[in-house]
Amino acid sequence: MARELIAWLAGSASALALAVALDFVFGDPEYRWHPVRLVGATLTAFETRLRAWGLDGRGGGIALFLLLVVTWGGVLAILGWAVTSIGAWPAWIVHAALVYSLLALGDLVLHVRRVDAAASRGNEAGARVAIAQLVGRDTDRMDVAACRRASIESLSENLTDGFTSPLFFYALGGLPGLLLFKIVSTMDSMVGYKTPRYLDFGWCGARLDDVLNFVPARLTWLLIAAIAAVVPGASARKAFACGLRQHSVLPGPNSGWSEAATAGAIQRRLVGPIWMKGAQVTAVWIGDPLDPPAGDHADVLRALRVVVASGLVAAGVVLLWLAL
Length: 324
Fold this sequence. Notes:
By secondary structure, the chain is mainly alpha-helical. It is 71% helix and 3% strand. The strands form two sheets. A two-stranded antiparallel sheet has the order 1-4. Strands 2-3 form a two-stranded antiparallel sheet. Strand 2 and strand 3 form a beta hairpin. Helix 2 (13-26) crosses helix 5 (88-101). The model has no long low-confidence stretch (mean pLDDT 95).
């Protein structure tokens, strides 16, 4: 039984192929027992208890991480034991379903298309409603072009932490590696804020997220540059140069690599003026200074081609790795 469990936990090329196909066709599945939703609920319960015990500093954040890893590592092991005892096919289906639930690029592509569809109809209000599901900035100040730019930014940034990083850790550690990454990613999104409440408590999640995304972010930059060489209207040279020179313009050590690379690849400037809670937080642009700002339908299509192709190639590389 131990041998079957270890085999079930290891990465599977066939399960990954099905998961990637489902992700691109249907997006992220919505169901009550979604793993990320369950991890988030457990995180909230643990946070409440740790704070009640006075563990609301960095030690509490480290304890939160350990509790989540032990809890969900145990759940994964028990689930694996249960499904492998039923049979090979049910075990494979559950494995593929977990991988599908823990990849998140297809859903983002669908959201970007909704923003662009509203913008193409001239429906500025609809574009603002659609982009509000992707970004936390003040959308009431955004015109159609700004909505499209924000959708491209979200698409390119999340290529790393929503898809290539999970693939990277699935290739290295199978389901346990993928689950570990999603635990850290969930911690970063829920407690990794630089606010008085979370500055210390969220430190562990934020720093671990930086560490885990470090290598995948830079691999994604190189991948985008390579893909841009074959996408019509894209520039591999600008993708490489903008990623290398401008990645540090954006907050954090990792998100800027794919976002700046995408700006260079599609030969359009991204970001620009952004307001949050009534205050302008940035006016910086990324991309080649001689390129125009993104904002047209064609810009979104080019970005989608670059990002989707990058994701598919990344998945293909991992599939080959697992099949060898």
